[in-house]
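TetR/AcrR family transcriptional regulator
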Amino acid sequence: MGLHERRQREKESIRANILQAAFTLAKTEGWASLSMRKIADAIEYSAPVVYDYFENKEAILFEISLDGFHNLHIELLKAQKKHDSPEDQLVAIVDAYWNFAFKNKEYYQLMFGLGMQCCGKGQMKKEFSSFQEMIYECTYDIIKKNGSNPDNACHMSHALFSAVHGMISIMMMRTADIPATMNKTTLDETVSAFIKSL
């Protein structure tokens, strides 16, 4: 291995360590308490080294959020491919989204700015809207199959996304005082009613 390749590999390793340290700190202390200084301390480098790789904390958060959206996209595709009918696909996609949110709470909070400022400023890649696009496609296919007006697919799918994301957000941010009924059963009933309404 040449000197250039060795240096490049070392740079990639330090960059990966910065991102991993930031994510680990967020899991233990929360995203709000994350700082460049804490990340530098965690990887045992000085803060200027971290700034050599990322302009600021927001750049680190953006990069981690992209990982989250990519991982979510993969889970949604896996769920969709297990079924043939648009109704079953829709149920599976929503379930996969719900499961991802609660198995990856730190990612989800960062991705959607729950309890913090959302990072990215419109820079998100295609995966950002994959959930919305997939439920739109299923909704459109169900509406068309039922002989209803396909012009309603956009409005209806946006309403479902809002309901699902809203339930997840409430459960994540207000666990102490939300009704006990706000759970997976409520989600299942909402999706079932949604499909019947199309």
